[in-house]
Structure formats: C-alpha cells, structure tokens
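Example (one chain per record):
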Amino acid sequence: MSECSCGCGKKTVLLYACSGGANVAEIADKAARQLMFDGQGSMFCLAGLGAGIGGMIQQAKDADVNLVIDGCPMECAKKVFEKAGVTNFACLKVTDLGIEKKKGIRATDEQVTAVVAKVKDMLAKM
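Predicted structure:
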C-alpha cells in the first residue's frame, strides 16, 4: 500500500458520503465530516467520480482505502464507484445500523455517533 504523501507513513484514506435527500444521507455526510475532523481520513468528492473526472477517479484508485458511507439499500454511492471502475473500496449502509430512512426529519447526534463508531471499527480492521 502507498503511504500518505506527507511522509507520515499513514494509509491514504478517502471518505465519501451519500448525498440523498433523506435523514440517512444527512447522517452519512455528518459522519464523514466528523471522521475527517477526527483525523481518520480526508473527505473526497463523490460527485466528481460520478461525473467521470479522470483525475479524481485516479486518486480514488490510488488510495489505500476508500470508505463509502451509503444512506440506504439503494447504494447510490457504491454504484458510483462501480460505474467509475474503482474497486478498492469498502461500504457501510446507515440503514444496516437499524436507522430508518425518513424524509423531513433531521439526523440526531446519536445516529451520527453510531455511524462514526462503526466506520472507525471498520478502518481499524483494514
């Protein structure tokens, strides 16, 4: 695996979040941002991969870990990776943690914390 370009010896971890309109997308986004602020990786642009931007696709392919946080069983973020031909990724679905998808309600801190904890556990095993 390649190392971070800063010379610190850490893996390059890119974080991607679902961008849907329901609460589970908000949870995914807030969790990815919290993970970034906690130093677990860098948030990266899922839309860039979906748009087929070559440089962004290459960065994803070159990363040690791409962690995709999908909101629901539709797996839109995962499908963006598949369509872009990026295979080195792991996924977490917010709804797999027992969080129900609903429109018109806000994410709670407890829900975001649960997703952050699960992702940290996943990253620790990679």
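Caption: Residues 109-124 form the longest helix (16 residues).
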